[in-house]
């Protein structure tokens, strides 16, 4: 496959215009760590954005920065760390789940795939932090939307539309995001020896307490073993809280009182950082087994798990996200999507073979009404279907 590596916006626009005139097509990559997420792409050339890299503007006092899409995420996190700031959506690194090297993903890739971690329970997803972008559409026009000033607007929120579109609507070249102050310290309260039903119920209770949790997860026994916590319990609830030393102490006291009838332990800052990073990265699922992710209301997590009786699984986002190993079959897809539809959620085939991802839609099939809207949006942004053909569906 031909590889095109533009050095700037001008070269990118030229390449896209030429493709539009010759019925070309592109698979868009940054570091290529998530190429196996979604349907296999049908493309004539690889569009490598790694050359469009670098931080353009950083205003720590205003909690905002602008960087080119090909900028390595670790470079941005290091920059923010020097000023005691973080990306509030806690982007995960899924590269090892797809056989790739960790630490390579780019800012554009993380935003295009809407990669959000455990902090979602307090800070929301990636799309909630993107306030501006620059991209090239399917006829080679360079477009800017939003900017470094956070304000209320009316109309189409294009930066959020690009977030989670997997590069099917345009080629991101620049992004502006707001950031969050890094907490002084963090602790994890562990509720030990919890069954799935009790543990998922405890997550709901914890979410309602005045402790502002920044992580709410449940790890069954097999997941505990794989994450090397050396536990023999049937499962553990993990409640991450952060703030000043005094604030975290008060929050721990509240949790101890609420869960006084359960065995209780507290992890320090370093242990907390490592553990929740591994949860967000899906470290319990390293290997090549088929993997699904279910998003559903947290209150429905207990019922969904009881209906499935899965083997290896993990609950994150207070129960709103369920990772589970299950074969990539039509029967499994029907079962999972029937359950998530019952509760108003969706199921994504996160990892499977190329053949399975061609036969089974990795992303939730759209209703006819929504599919028509999706086609209209695709036509407006990429009328000749140049970008990531088939990545999300047969028409997107």
> How are the strands ordered across the major sheet?
4-5-9-7-8
What average pLDDT do the residues reach? 95
Q: Specify the helix fraction band.
A: 25-40%
CATH topology of the largest domain: Alpha-Beta Plaits
The separation of the N and C termini measures 21 Å
Strand content: 15-25%
Number of helices: 13
Main CATH class of the largest domain: Alpha Beta
| Cα-atom radius of gyration | 21 Å
Structure classification: alpha+beta
Number of strands: 18
Would you identify the regions where 5 or more consecutive residues have pLDDT less than 50? 150-154
From the spread of the alpha carbons, the general shape counts as globular
Quickly count the domains.
2
Describe the protein's topology.
Layout: E1 2-4, H1 9-21, E2 26-29, E3 45-48, E4 55-59, E5 64-68, H2 73-81, E6 85-86, H3 107-112, H4 120-123, E7 130-136, E8 142-146, H5 158-162, E9 171-178, E10 180-181, E11 185-191, H6 196-207, E12 215-220, H7 221-226, E13 235-243, H8 245-258, E14 264-267, H9 269-280, E15 291-295, H10 301-308, E16 313-316, E17 321-325, H11 330-343, E18 346-351, H12 354-359, H13 368-381
Parallel strand pairs: 1-3, 2-3
Antiparallel strand pairs: 4-5, 5-9, 6-10, 7-8, 7-9, 11-13, 11-14, 12-13, 15-17, 15-18, 16-17
């Amino acid at each position: 496959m031909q590889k095109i590596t533009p050095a700037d916006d001008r070269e990118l626009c030229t390449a896209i215009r030429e493709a539009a005139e010759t019925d070309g097509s592109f698979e868009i990559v940054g570091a290529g760590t998530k190429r196996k997420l979604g349907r296999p792409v049908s493309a004539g050339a690889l569009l490598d954005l790694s050359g469009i890299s670098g931080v353009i503007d950083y205003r720590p006092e205003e909690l905002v920065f602008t960087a080119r899409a090909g900028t390595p995420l670790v470079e941005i996190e290091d920059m923010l760390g020097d000023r005691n700031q973080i990306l509030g959506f806690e982007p995960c690194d899924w590269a090892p789940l797809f056989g790739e090297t960790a630490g390579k993903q780019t800012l554009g890739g993380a935003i295009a795939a809407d990669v959000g971690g455990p902090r979602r329970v307090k800070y929301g997803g990636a799309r909630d932090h993107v306030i501006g972008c620059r991209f090239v559409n399917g006829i080679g026009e360079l477009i800017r939307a939003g900017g470094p000033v956070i304000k209320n607007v009316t109309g189409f929120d294009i930066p959020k539309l690009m977030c989670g579109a997997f590069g099917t609507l345009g080629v991101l070249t620049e992004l502006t995001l707001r950031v969050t102050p890094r907490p002084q310290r963090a602790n994890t309260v562990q509720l030990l020896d919890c069954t799935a039903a009790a543990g998922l119920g405890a997550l709901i209770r914890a979410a309602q307490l005045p402790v502002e949790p920044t992580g709410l997860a449940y790890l069954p026994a097999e997941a505990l073993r794989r994450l090397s916590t050396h536990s023999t319990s049937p499962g553990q609830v993990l409640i991450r809280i952060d703030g000043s030393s005094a604030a975290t102490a008060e929050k721990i006291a509240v949790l101890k009182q609420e869960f006084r009838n359960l065995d209780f332990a507290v992890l320090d800052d370093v242990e907390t950082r490592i553990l929740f990073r591994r949860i967000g990265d899906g470290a319990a699922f390293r290997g090549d087994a088929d993997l699904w992710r279910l998003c559903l209301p947290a209150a429905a997590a207990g019922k969904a798990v009881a209906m499935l009786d899965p083997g290896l699984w993990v609950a994150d986002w207070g129960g709103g996200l369920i990772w589970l190993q299950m074969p990539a079959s039509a029967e499994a897809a029907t079962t999972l999507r029937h359950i998530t539809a019952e509760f108003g959620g969706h199921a994504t085939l996160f990892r499977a073979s190329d053949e399975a991802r061609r036969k089974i839609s990795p992303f939730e099939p759209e209703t006819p009404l929504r599919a028509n809207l999706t086609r209209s949006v695709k036509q407006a942004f990429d009328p000749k279907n140049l970008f990531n053909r088939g990545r999300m569906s047969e028409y997107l």
